[in-house]
Amino acid sequence: MVSNSHPILGMILQRLALGLLSLLIVSIVIFTAVSMLPGDFASAVLGRSATPETVAAFQQNLGLDQPWPRRYFQWLAGALIGDFGNSFSNRPVSAVIGSRLFNTLKLAALTAMIAVPIAVFLGTICARYRNKPIDRFLSAITLASISLPEFFIAYVLMLFLATKLHIFPTLSSIRGSMDMLEQLHRMALPVLTLMFVTLAHMMRNTRAALIGIMSHPYIEMARLKGEPEMRIILRHALPNAIGPIASVIAINLAYLIAGVVVVEVVFVYPGIGQTMVDAVRNRDVPVVQACALIFAANYIILNLVADLVSIVSNPRLLHPR
Amino acid sequence: MIDRSIKILLTAAFLDSSLFPKAALTTAIRKIAWFLPARKSANKGELKMSDARIREMNFWADRYRNGGISRREFLGRASALAAVSAAGLGFNPATLLASEPKQGGYARFGMSDASQQDTLDPGTWPTSFAEAAFNGSLCNNLTEIAADGSIVGDLAESFEPADGAKKWIFKIRNGITFHDGKSLTIKDIQEAFHYHMGDKSTSGAKSLLSQVESIDADGPNTIIFNLKSGTADFPYLVADFHLSIMPAKEEGGIDWQRGVGTGSFILENFEPGSSVKMKRNPNYHKNNKPYFDEVEFIAIMDQTARLNAFLTGEVDFSGDIDVRNMALIDRNPELEILRIPSLRHFTFDMDTTAKPFDNLDVRLAMKYALDRDDILRKVFLNEAKKGNDTPVASAMPFFKDPTPQFDYNIEKAKEHLAKAGLKTLDVDLSVSEAAFPGATESAVLYKEHAAKAGININIIREADDGYWENVWLKKPFNGCDWYGRATCDWLFSTAYAADASWNNTHWNNPRFNELLVAARSETDNDKRAAQYGEMQQLLHDDGGVITVAFVNWVYGLNKKIAHGPVSGIFPCDNLRMTERWWMA
User: Fold this and answer.
1) B47, B502, B527, B575: which could form a disulfide with B495 (CB 3.0–4.6 Å)?
2) Residue A14 is inside which H or E element, if any?
3) Is the ipTM reported for this complex over the cut 0.85?
4) Domains of chain A
């Protein structure tokens, strides 16, 4: 009986080990890439007063005059014991990233809480009424919203709901001093935009997964037994489609955390995407590294969770012979 | 997978707006939505006072505010003007009087250039966000540049040179306190300057202060700067934003981390890259100032987002308005555009030591082959001032417009080319949008203009990222965006002296360099004016700089906020908009 839990446990351990390896590779790639970019933090932060001698003094101060492999290993030694060091602007990296990461998670969670149930629900409806007007209508809308770049959707929403109708504010720059209600009010437009972007993808995949399963012989069997169509979908098809649905949801969640920098810029939302872009622009390597690791870990963990869900939901994978 | 890569591409395109016509797109969206009700429309039927009269009225209002005329006189003139412009046109002199400074209000400034790497360290502050918040609101300098461009005391009550301007003596105002209640002492000022000096210093003001030998206290209220050589402009230099006075630490050095200064506003909250919130300093040393109760600087980097926030009243001020969006603001009667002549100018710089630009006639041919009016019209939509191949802006002391004005002249260009023994000429021009906004468009127009004179300009599009590291100062012919300096000496020593670290034209004119040193310690203003005049003429005749245009600082301002004359030596009303402006 012990062997039953082994496949899952083994997989988790294996995936985590691979995940750590990926993180290491990511950190090397990012560090090399940022080091090869022209300019450095000293010239960025001094702006128009960056005379050569000041830049040199700055570089010496930050250790930027040392060769990059040496700087990398210094950083790695710190990171291994959980010390991500100080940003070049002399604040701990955790202080730079902390509140921003929290904001991003808040936005992602809010969007997912609304978008995921709607997506699965609409996807089921589409599969049930496949090729009927409602399916065609929803498909057309979702395909359109997939095809449009997210900043376009953002600007259209902003124009109608903020500039013309004054329902929501255009600025989503939430700050600690605002109360919960105002923060939610300000987050409405980014949430709405991200919903449009992710909902379509998740709904299309739910629909496709369900339709794929509906062509199996056992569904036909259920039909021949005289089961109502909705019951067939919910009881027979949906449980078997959980695997693919979970993986597309995971990808979208990962995207909501790591890929929404454009929406952040448009609505001036203080999230972590902008932190990373800012840090790259200023060549603030410790912050860039920390962001990259967070993004990579986020993809690795969410994909792991998705795989776990599909294994647990599939008895054939859960109890391999 | 394809979907994802397209998204990434679009993201890249979005972040690099030169690749994707985002502005055009948003304009298109606005056009589609014409049928929706606009927020408020202008009263089209209402007649308006003629522009000339409004200008005159504003002139008298300014005079009144500055104490030049009495209230009675102002009211008299105002009502006379109103009567001339025919009765009942909705004009009332009292409305202008309402813009007399008064206390109160909460002003929000939408800024374009914040960064998460911003700190309170006065050695950095690379952009107007940190400069206006931390220098202009939180701190003071010994001197400040007044709205008319003259230099006046700030923390210093008075200042005077001695010993051929090798010594500068500043008398410090009495009874000034920091926000935490501590009194300002000479030691604070000494440490504030020492912080930027010395080999170890990482401050942007390091080279500026390299001429300072020592800083001595003379009694509790006098501080003496001993300079290595005479510098008549020294009071201007101490107005540089880096040289903010902050409290000294017991053991030496300054305590910038706490965010305490002597300035008009007290720091309440600073979220790097996001916002700075400040409240009024009730003990400020200038009469009645500041006027706002609270101010907030809000970082809105994206241009469209900033415009939207401004149009919907989320912020009262917007930095860096795009010329293409000006009409949108002009149409709205509640908003105004401030066009402040600045020191900022865009140039194409020729390396005077590299072939073919080492030949003066080639340089002159290049100067005549550029149709500046065409570029002003097409690239800057006439929102800029034509350059005349000097870097000195008209707002600066000792400005002199050299003659002749370089204009598009194919004949003269050909003539100079022939003098150089050439029939045709091939040159490479390195530009990118990072060089200056509109650089690539200007270069393309330049190519067309020059082709008619037999000059073939090959445009090399450089990468935006790294432009200042790899192209500027390195390629023989490149585009450059200059923010200018407050004085001729400062400007020339930074970028045109033979040994200047930013000498992009690699120009080495013995007469110019000799005059630069002579004028620096000259305290006779007439002589200095003659010297700087000659230097500007030299730059114009012999230099390698092709000044395309001087641009304005362009800000959007809600008419809720009133202001006196606005100066553009530094951005944001010389960084002091928070203390100079008020709620109308």
Assistant:
1) B502
2) helix A2-36
3) no
4) 7-80 (no CATH), 93-318 (1.10.3720.10)
